[in-house]
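Worked example 2:
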Amino acid sequence: MLGEEAVDVLPQAAVGVADLLAQSRPPLRPDVPCETQPVPNLKTTPGPGPKQVQSAATANPQAYKDMWDKISAGAVQELRDSVDRAGLGKDLKVSSEPATAADIAGLASKLGHTAQLDKIEQMLKGITTPDGGSNGGGK
C-alpha cells in the first residue's frame, strides 16, 4: 500500500473506490480441509473517488510554459558549458532551438544510424509531449 498520498494518472476520472479492508479476518482453521470451510464474504462498500487534481499544464498553461522555457534555457546553458569545459566548442554547436524530426533524421542518415533511429521511434510512439501533443513517432 502506498499510503494516503499515492498519485496516479488515469485516462478518465475515477468514479469511486471500494474499501480494501475486511471488517474482520475469516476464521483460520488449519485442522479443517479448505474445501469444507465456508467461503469468506468478499463484498466491499463503495466509497467516493479520490480528490481530482488538475495538472500544472492545464491549470495554468502560461505558468507551465514559462517554467518549461526556464528549465530548457538552463539545460541549454549547462550543455554549452559542458561542451566548453571539454574543449569541444570548435566541433560541437549547441542550439537553443529544439531539433526537428527532420534534423534528427538527417543527422542519423549522415552518421549511418537510421536503424537505431527507427528503433527509438518505435519505442516513443504514443508518448505525449510537454505541449500536450503526441510525437506520433514519425520522421
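Residues 99-129 form one domain. The longest helix spans residues 61-85.
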